[in-house]
Amino acid sequence: MYIRIAEKVMENPETVTLYFSYEFPSVPGQFVMVDVPGKEEIPVSLSSESSITVKAVGDTTQKMLNLGKGTIVGIRGPYGNGFKAVEGNKLVVGGGIGIAPLRYLVRWLERDIDVVYGVKTVKEFIFFEELRAKNVVFITENGSFGEKGTVIDILESMDLGKYDQIYVCGPEMMIASILNLFEREKILPLTQISVERYMKCGIGICGSCCIDPFGLRVCVEGPVFNGEILKNSEIGKYHRNGSGRKYVWKN
Amino acid sequence: MYIRIAEKVMENPETVTLYFSYEFPSVPGQFVMVDVPGKEEIPVSLSSESSITVKAVGDTTQKMLNLGKGTIVGIRGPYGNGFKAVEGNKLVVGGGIGIAPLRYLVRWLERDIDVVYGVKTVKEFIFFEELRAKNVVFITENGSFGEKGTVIDILESMDLGKYDQIYVCGPEMMIASILNLFEREKILPLTQISVERYMKCGIGICGSCCIDPFGLRVCVEGPVFNGEILKNSEIGKYHRNGSGRKYVWKN
Amino acid sequence: MLEVRIGDMVLENPTVLASGIMGTTVSSLNRIARVAGGVVTKSVTSEPREGFKNPTVVNVNCGILNAVGLSNPSAKLFAQELERYNGEAPLIVSLAGSEEEIPELVSFFPMAQGFELNLSCPHVGSMGAELGSDPELVENICRRVKKRTSKPIFVKLSPNVTDIVEIGRGAERGGADGVVAINTLRAMVIDVEAGKPILSNRIGGLSGKAIKPVAVRCVYELFETLKIPVIGCGGIITWRDAVEFLMAGASAVQIGSGVFYGTSIFKSVIEGIKDFLVRKNLSLEDVIGMAHRN
Amino acid sequence: MLEVRIGDMVLENPTVLASGIMGTTVSSLNRIARVAGGVVTKSVTSEPREGFKNPTVVNVNCGILNAVGLSNPSAKLFAQELERYNGEAPLIVSLAGSEEEIPELVSFFPMAQGFELNLSCPHVGSMGAELGSDPELVENICRRVKKRTSKPIFVKLSPNVTDIVEIGRGAERGGADGVVAINTLRAMVIDVEAGKPILSNRIGGLSGKAIKPVAVRCVYELFETLKIPVIGCGGIITWRDAVEFLMAGASAVQIGSGVFYGTSIFKSVIEGIKDFLVRKNLSLEDVIGMAHRN
Ligand SMILES: Cc1cc2nc3c(=O)[nH]c(=O)nc-3n(C[C@H](O)[C@H](O)[C@H](O)COP(=O)(O)OP(=O)(O)OC[C@H]3O[C@@H](n4cnc5c(N)ncnc54)[C@H](O)[C@@H]3O)c2cc1C
Ligand SMILES: Cc1cc2nc3c(=O)[nH]c(=O)nc-3n(C[C@H](O)[C@H](O)[C@H](O)COP(=O)(O)OP(=O)(O)OC[C@H]3O[C@@H](n4cnc5c(N)ncnc54)[C@H](O)[C@@H]3O)c2cc1C
Ligand SMILES: Cc1cc2nc3c(=O)[nH]c(=O)nc-3n(C[C@H](O)[C@H](O)[C@H](O)COP(=O)(O)O)c2cc1C
Ligand SMILES: Cc1cc2nc3c(=O)[nH]c(=O)nc-3n(C[C@H](O)[C@H](O)[C@H](O)COP(=O)(O)O)c2cc1C
Ligand code: FES
Ligand code: FES
Predict the structure, then answer these.
(1) Fewer CB within 10 Å: N-end or C-end of chain A?
(2) Where is the domain boundary, B55, B79, B103?
(3) Which uninterrupted H or E stretch holds B15?
(4) Domain boundary among B79, B101, B127
C-alpha cells in the first residue's frame, strides 16, 4: 500500500511521528514495514492506529525525520501479533523509543494502568503531555526530570506483585535486565514483552527474525512474547544481522 | 470442479439425464462445460439445478449415455446469461433436445405457462410425465402422438399475441422459422431464444462462439438472446466449426 | 492525450486486443475496435487447423491455461472474413507457421495495417522447440516478412527462453518495428481426481494475473536494450497493471485474458490511465519507461 | 504409508522445507524438521553475503516476489550454526557460488545428509546468465561435488531456461541423485505511485501460487526423460497442490512460500495426502507419475 503522510510531528530533535489519513486495522504492538523513498524498508511499530514514531539511529530513520508532509511512502502490514488486553491492574514499562508502541497500548487499554517510562535525559521524552495525564513515573538516567536512575532501579523499588499483567518495550539490554528481575519475582508468566530482530519479509518466510532456541519468528509469533518464552532465549545475549551472522550484545 | 454422477436416468434410447448431488447456483438457460473422461469437453445446458440431459449425436454425447452412476466428470460453469423471468402469460416452445433447458425453465417459472413441445416421433419425448402435468401441446411430425406437424405449424395456428413472453429452444432450423414467424407477428421483442454455437472456453475469451453481425458471444451474452438481436444475425444461415470455418446450414 | 505512435501506426489509445482473444470472427474484432486502440487477430496459418480437442481453455488459480492449437480456417478463408473489418482501429494480423510459410501469408491481407509474427509454434524440423527461441531464425523471418510488406511488423516474444532480450535483438536486427512481450508461459494443470492433465494437449500456456510480474520483467529488460518499441502483454486487468507495463517501458499494452472480466475492460483501463495522468500531472511519454529513470 | 526414498535418503513423508524459507537459523530448521519429511537450508556461499537492501521480499498478487540476494553468514559460520541440528528429518544443505566454490563448500557440513546445488546465481564470467542455464556446466559441477561426497546431491533447477529438461539431463549425467524443480521465475513488480520497481534489486524471483502451473509442467517434462527422481517445488499450499506434483512425477515436494500461511502447512499437506490415498485406495507409488499413465 502506498500512502501519503498527512501530518508530521517532531517529538524531539531526533524523533518524528508520521500520521496517515488512514487507520490501520490493528492492535497495539503490531508493526508495519515502511519503505522509505531512496532508502531501505524497515519495520516500525504503530504508535497509534494511524501513525508511526521513529527515532533516527541510522540512514533510513534519519531520512524519515526529513520526509515532508504529503510524501508517499510504501507500507506493508500491519504484521505481527500485538499485545493482548487483560483485565485487572496493568503496568506498562517503556524505555527510550520503546514508548512508541506503548503509547498506542496505553490509549487502547484505557484504564487501570500505571506507566514507568525511562530515558537518558529529559529532552528525550516524547508523548509527554499525553502520558502525563496518566499515572506515570518518568525517569531519567541523569535525573534531569522525574526519578533519577534506570527503569530497572525503579521497578526494583516497586511492588510488582500487585499487577495482573506487565507490558514491556525498550532497548534489549533493558529487557534482559527486566527478564532477570521478573524471574526473581516469579512473575514472568504475567508479562508481554515486545522485542526487535532484523527483518526482511515481515510475513514469516525469510527466517531472518527467528530467535533461538525455539525458532520463533518475531514477525509472526512476535514481536510480543510472554516473558517465560524469552527468558532462556537469545534475547539479551546475541542477535543477527541481515546475513544471519550472530552479534553478541555488548553491555 | 470434479463431480460424481449421483443418478442416471435413460429418458429414451438416445437421451440420458445425469443427476449430481450438487445444486449448481444457476438460472435456467445457463450451461456447463462437461469434460467426459476419454472424450471431449462439450457445452450442455442444465436441465435442472442439479442435472444435465444429453442426446447422443456424436462421439462425446454417445459416451455420456454409457457413463455409469458414480463416474466422475469435470464440470466448469454454470456459464452464460440464462432466461429472464417475466410476469404474465408465458409460452415455452421446445423442439427435440431443446426441451432440456426448458424443463428447468418450466419448473422455475412455475405458473402461467403454456408449452409447445415438438419432436419427430413419440419415442423422442422426454420429461413426458413431468410436462404432461402442465398445459402442454405435444407435437410429433409423424402424428404418432399429440398434434401432427411441426412446432411452426402449431405456432402459426395459435394466438401468439396473448403472451407476454415467449421462450424458445430447439434445432437451429426451427429457430430460423420461428424468427420469421415472430417477425411477421411483430412479437420479436417479447422473445427469449436460446441458441448454440461451437464453444471452447465458455468464458468469453476464445471468440469461437461469436455470432455475426454484432460479434456477440453465445457463452457470455447468450446463449439466450432477444429475438430482435437474432433476426438479422447468422442464426439460421451459417455457423462455424472449431477452426472458425463457416458452414452454411443445409435446410 | 492517450494517442501513441508505434512506427507508422497511430493508436488512439495504448490498449490493444491480444491475439487469440475474440479474434476469430470479424464481427468480434469490429466490436472491440470501437474502444481499443488496436486489435490483433487470432493467429492464422497457411492451411486450416482444427486445433486441439476440448478442453482447450480452462480457468486456473490466478489465470487461464490454454492449448487451443492455433485453430484457424486458413489465411485464405480468414482474409475473406476480414474484408468486413470496420477499420475503427488499426488491424494487426497475427501470422504463424514455419520460416517459409509466414512470409507467404502477408499478401493475403491487404486490409491489415500491420502484422504480428507469432513465433511460439513448434519449430518444424527441431522437435518441440519454438521458432521464437532462436534469435537468428527470428532475424531471418523478420527480414523475409519485411521484403513482402512495408507495413509495420511486430514479433510476439515467448517468455519460455533463457534470455528474451537476445530474441528481441534478433527481431530488431531483422527489421521488426516492435516486439510484443509476452506470449503465454508453458504450464500444466493436473486434475487430482482424474489423475491426469486437464487440457487435452496436456501442456498449455498460462496467461492472466499469474504471469504479470514475469511479463513486466520481460518488458523492462527489453526496453533497456532495444531501440524499437516494446508492446506489453500479460495479465493486464486494471489500469494499474497497464501503467506498470508503461512504466516498465511498454509503448502500448495488449489485453487478452482480461477480457474474461468483460469487454468493457478496454474502456476501464483507458479511463483509468487518463485519470492517473491527470492526477499525477504526467503525459503518456513521461510514464513510458519511467521505472528506468526512477 | 508416506515414507519416500530418494537415493539413499529416507523421508518419513514427502514434504520438504524449501531453501531460503526459515532456513537461516538452526532453531527454525529444528522447528520444521519436527513435522516435515526433510529440510533444506538457506543457500550458503563461501564468503558472507549481506544480500540486497530491503525491500527484499514482498507479497504480490498470487505469490511472493523476492530478491534476498543469497544473504548468508558464510559456510563456515553457518556450519557452526548447524551443529545444533536436531536430526529429526534429513538435513539438506543448499550450496551456492561459482563452479569452483560450490564443491569446496561440501566439507564444511558433516552434519548434512545431502546437498542441494542452487545454480540460479549469476554465472561468474558470462554476465547475467545463470550457472543453471548451461547443461555442461551443471554436469561439471555435479561431477566435482560428487567427488567430494558420497551423500546424495540434488540440483535445484531454474525455470528461466528454454529447455529445463536439457539442464536436468546435464545434472543426471553429472551424477546428481535428483533434481528439484523449480526455483523462482524472474519477475518484477512496479509500484505505480512511486514509478519504480518495488524490490531494491528491481528484478526478483516470483514464487507461490502464480508459478504452480509452470512448476508442474517442469516436473512433468523432467519425469518423462530423467531416470533420477524429481522433487517438485513451486506454489504448493494445499494437499491438492502437492498431489498434483506427485502425479506429474515428483517423488517428494518442497514447500516455500506456502509457509506464509503458517508452519502448520506441512501437517495439513501431509494429512491431506494421507486422506486422499485412503479415499482413492492408492499407494504413494501409484500416485507418483500417475498423470503420465492416464
Ligand atoms: C518489530 C519492530 C518494531 C520496531 N519499531 C520501531 C519504532 O516504533 N520506532 C523506531 O524508531 N524503531 C523501531 N524499530 C527499529 C527500527 O526498525 C530500526 O531502528 C531501523 O531499522 C534502523 O534503520 P536505519 O537504516 O535507520 O539504521 P541502520 O544504521 O541501518 O541500522 C541501525 C540498527 O537498526 C536495526 N535494523 C536495521 N535494519 C533493520 C531491519 N530491517 N529490521 C530490524 N532491525 C533493523 C539493526 O539493529 C541495526 O543495527 C522496530 C524494529 C522492529 C523489529
Ligand atoms: C450452450 C449450449 C447448450 C447445449 N445444451 C445441450 C443439452 O442440454 N443437451 C444436449 O444434448 N446438447 C446440448 N448442446 C449441444 C452439445 O454441445 C453437442 O451436441 C455436443 O457438443 C456434440 O458433441 P459430440 O462429440 O457428441 O458430437 P460431434 O460429432 O463432435 O459434434 C456434433 C455436433 O455438435 C456440435 N458440437 C460439437 N462440439 C461442440 C462444442 N464444443 N461446442 C458446441 N457445439 C459442439 C457441432 O455442431 C457438431 O457438428 C448444447 C450446446 C450449446 C452450445
Ligand atoms: C485462449 C487464448 C488463445 C490465444 N491464442 C493466441 C494466438 O493465436 N496467437 C498468439 O500470439 N497468442 C495467443 N494467445 C496469447 C495471448 O495473446 C497473450 O499473449 C497471453 O494470453 C498473455 O496475455 P494475457 O495475460 O492478457 O492473456 C492466446 C491466449 C489465450 C488465453
Ligand atoms: C524469500 C525467499 C528466499 C529464497 N531463497 C532461496 C535460496 O536461498 N536458495 C534457493 O535455492 N531457493 C530460494 N528460494 C526459492 C524457494 O526455495 C522455492 O524454490 C521457490 O520459492 C518456489 O517455491 P514456493 O512457491 O513454494 O515458494 C527462496 C524463495 C523465497 C520466497
Ligand atoms: S522477517 Fe522474514 S520471517 Fe520474520
Ligand atoms: S466459447 Fe470462447 S468466447 Fe465463447
Answers:
(1) C
(2) B79
(3) strand B15-20
(4) B79
Q: Report the DSSP pairing between strands B2-12 and A246-248.
A: unpaired
Whether B185 is in a domain gets the answer yes
Active-site residue identified among C62, C121, C218, C233: C121
Task: Write down the pTM of the prediction.
Answer: 0.95
Residue B94 lies in a domain: yes
Q: Is B85 a domain residue?
A: no
- Tell me how far the alpha carbon of residue B104 lies from the centroid of ligand 2, in angstroms: 19
Tell me: do A183 and A68 sit in the same domain.
no
Residue C170 in contact with residue C136, Cβ under 8 Å? yes
State which residue of chain A sits closest to D72, comparing Cα positions.
Answer: A243
A112/A188 same-domain check: yes
Determine the pLDDT at residue A37.
84
Which ligand has an atom closest to residue B17 CA? 2
| Domain co-membership, B51 together with B124 | no
User: From atom 7 of ligand 1, which residue's Cα is the shortest distance away?
Assistant: A44
Please write the tens of the pLDDT for every residue from C9-59. 999 999 999 999 999 999 999 999 999 999 999 999 999 999 999 999 999
Peptide bond into A213 cis (omega under 30): yes
Cα–Cα nearest to D188, from C232, A88, A121: C232
The answer to whether residues B200 and B130 belong to one domain is: yes
How close is the Cα of C60 to the center of ligand 2, in Å?
24
Residues 6+ apart with CB under 8 A from B199: B33, B42, B43, B208, B209, B218, B219, C54
**Residue of C41, C46, C54, C266 to mutate, interface with B, max B Cβ within 10 Å:** C54
Query: Does B117 share its domain with B173?
Result: yes
From the CA of C269, how many Å to the nearest CA of chain B?
Answer: 17
If you measure from the C-alpha of residue A187 to the centroid of ligand 5, how many angstroms do you get, rounded to a whole number?
29
Structural domains of chain B, count: 2
D246 touches ligand 4 (CB under 6 Å): no
Domain with residue A73: its CATH number is 2.40.30.10
Considering the domain architecture, whether residues B95 and B40 belong to the same structural domain is answered as no
C200-256 pLDDT, tens digit each: 999 999 999 999 999 999 999 999 999 999 999 999 999 999 999 999 999 999 999
Task: Give the single-character DSSP code of C130.
Answer: B
**B210 CB under 6 A from ligand 2?**
no
Q: Report the residue from B2, B40, B210 with minimal CB separation from C27.
A: B210
Closest ligand to residue B32's CA = 2
Query: What distance in Å separates the CA atoms of residue B18 and residue D100, rounded to the nearest whole number?
Result: 64
Give the range of the structural domain holding residue A167, as residue numbers without chain letter: 90-248
Residues A131 and A188 in one domain: yes
Pick from C32, C57, C74: which is nearest to B200 by CB? C57
**All cell numbers assigned to C166:** 537476445
Contact residues, chain D, for A81 at CB < 8 Å: none
CATH of the domain at B218: 3.40.50.80
Q: What is the ipTM of this complex?
A: 0.94
Query: Is there a contact between A244 and D200 if contact means CB atoms under 8 Å apart?
Result: no
Exposure class string for A9-22: b at 16+ Cβ within 10 A, else e: eebeebbbbbbbee
Torsion of CA B175, B177, B178, B184, to 10 degrees: 150
Nearest to A204 by CA among D125, B155, D57: D57
Which atom of ligand 2 has the smallest separation from the CA of B239? 47
- Is A84 inside a domain boundary? no
Report the alpha-carbon angle C10-C13-C15, nearest 5. Answer: 110
Find the C21 Cα to ligand 6 centroid distance in Å: 9
- Domain annotation for chain D: domains and CATH numbers: 4-50+70-185+206-293 (3.20.20.70)
> Does ligand 4 lie within 6 Å of residue D72's CB atom?
no
Pairing type for strands D91-95 and D38-40 reads: parallel
The atom number, within ligand 3, closest to the CA of C208 reads 25
Q: Same domain, yes or no, for B191 and B94?
A: yes
Residues in chain D: 294
CA–CA gap between residue A21 and residue B215 (Å, rounded)? 47
D191 vs A74, A202, A214: nearest CB: A74
